[in-house]
Amino acid sequence: MLGVTRRRLALVAVGAVALVPIMGGATPAAAAGEATISADTASTYQTNGVVWALAYANGVVYAGGSFDRVRPPGAAPGTNETVRNNFAAFDASTGALLPCAPSAGGTSVRALTPSPDGSTLYVGGLVTSFGGVGVQNLAALNTASCTVNTGFRPAVNGWVRAIATNSTASTVYFGGEFQSVAGEPRGLAAAVTNTGALLPWSPNAVAPGDARYNSVRGLTVSGDDSRVVLGGDFNTLGGLPAMRLAIVNSTTGAILNTFPGFITSASSVRSVVSDSQNFYLGAEGTGGGVFDGRAAFNIYTGALVWRDNCLGATQAVLPYNGVLYSGSHAHNCSTTPGGYPDGSRHHLLAQSIADRTLLPWFPNTNDGIAEQNGPRALAMANGTLWVGGEFTTVNGAAQQGLTRFTPKPDHNNASAPVPSVASYQPGQVQVRWRSVVDLDDGTLTYHVFRDGVEIGTVTGDSRFWLRPQLSFVDTVAPGSFHVYRLSVSDANSTSALGGTVGITAATSPAVYPNKILVDNPVTYWRLDEAGAPFAADSSTGNIAGVYSGGVSYRQAGGVPGDTDTGVTFNGTDGRVLSWTAQNPTASYSLDLWFRTTTTSGGKLIGFGTGISSNNATGISGTYDRHIYMTNSGRLVIGNRADTIRTATSPASYNNGAWHHVIGTSGATGLHLYVDGVEVASNAAATSAGAYTGYWRIGYDNINGWPSQPSSRAFAGSIDDVAIYNYQLTPAQVAAHMS
Question: Which own/partner contact pairs does 474-479 have at CB distance under 8 Å and 24+ positions apart?
């Protein structure tokens, strides 16, 4: 794994960066100074097993692991295979298989590290022979001739999982799961000369006895050769407390720094690497509240530079040009700046070395085989990132065990979205679209075309979990017909033009929409789309909605005299979800039309913490500011600040007719209006809960609320939903019905 490799990478100077922490919602500012590599993959050979370790030296990338065959890119498993036993070499520029093929006998290769000049490659694992030479878990390869150094044969009595050298390669440090070297006691870590002679260096790491925790898994040496960083599963060094991580003297093995309280016994360090100033680690934990993320320390003082707390075990880390790349299965980075909410696993990440912010670089693999943790090893070869691991797909395409990502510029443009258009004022056309995702560019520029001619551009940030609505307002002749479409650019190239949509510009103000818009809603979803996923916001808030589940589109609308359509939800999983996190005011108003005959109730609209981006469940744990229907068809509006407070209609409205409901909350309490008439109120409910969350239409949690219906999902039609961050007056409510 890369955590065994000693690296001296100069950091690129980074300018001032204004970055916004993303707690699953707010749009991140574009990073300044840190440029990632491309998310594009290049043609690369594959293995029929797991690549646990990678190393680069003199134009060659070496892979070690648990495999006995390799095959060309695109070849299916079992086809066009070439024998390679746990070790293979590839051309770093082309990815082609090279003839250098010493067979690694035994169980597996787990560590590869070149000498600083690249002339020797040190190989570790549970290896009984290498290139036909009998070895005991540690060997050396002459890279120029691809021959085994028969003079370097330390007898290590267990796994070698980590290797590092000093700057002159006079000393080779290694760690793993062993208790002796050359017959002398050595607890999990030892050092030999470059001829294989045992040195007295012996930090004497001791594991806690659990079979899962019994190893030194990462080693790196400071740039001045004075310090060695050890990471792994150990509890003590030399009989002194040293939980999972320590810095020791490179000659005596004496402890220089330990990090009490930084890592608990529920986590272990899986990878350690360094550059000229810092060392970086990746951790894996088991259970709740563990440390699964990455951290940076000053290698000379031991001072913490930063730590992120993403959840999802980190197996490999690699600093390059001001960016820390990592392989993990991180599924929740909500507490990391630039991070995403809990949900699907993302196996490759990049973050700013300056301040730990996650950068917009999100290629992905699957979990794969064996332990199913995806990537296990990283190596940089002339600006190309090589990744090895357990995976069998990369960016959704079949590719097993090995892949590589090229330097920029790239040409992996996202497809341009089809816009939504509306005209509510004479000669004015709103062009709206949901931003798209580029796996290695967070900031994209959208080109707006009218009738084949570009008329403007809009720039916006987006991520895979955060795709805000963007909009452009065009002025044309009232009554004229026009066709709109978009293209999208990153810093290097521009996509083809996307799909078209036409509209006739209004000749007079649209009656109902302008009743809503004049009162400045923060969100106004007309729900008139022809299909999923984008529900356009007609307000200036630009809070895009996303359709999900069983939704029928272009259904008859509820607004009298308006040709606009609505949607029908299936009562099981149909819903509209907002993906942009909000912090609504304590006062609010909810405004919508509905029609139903359900006897199972359900939520018409509400606010809650559940999020559906990153494939999360979307079910809220905290929720209020909602209107729901009971099984009998009565409507309930409710807040929860200090306690649950509600107002309930005395009549039922599940009679199959369209009804207009407005719920307001503020200084005068809760008010519920149906078809323009106030039907319920609660003067004591003057405030709602204070938390970050998301708006939901047609579905969300109602557990614990009065007259809780049997279904959280609403079965029926909904049209024209508006949300306000203040309490509408009775006069405004009446105007919406007039």
Answer: 474/428, 474/429, 474/431, 474/448, 474/450, 475/427, 475/428, 475/429, 476/427, 476/428, 476/429, 476/450, 476/505, 477/427, 477/505, 478/426, 478/427, 478/505, 478/506, 478/507, 479/504, 479/505, 479/507
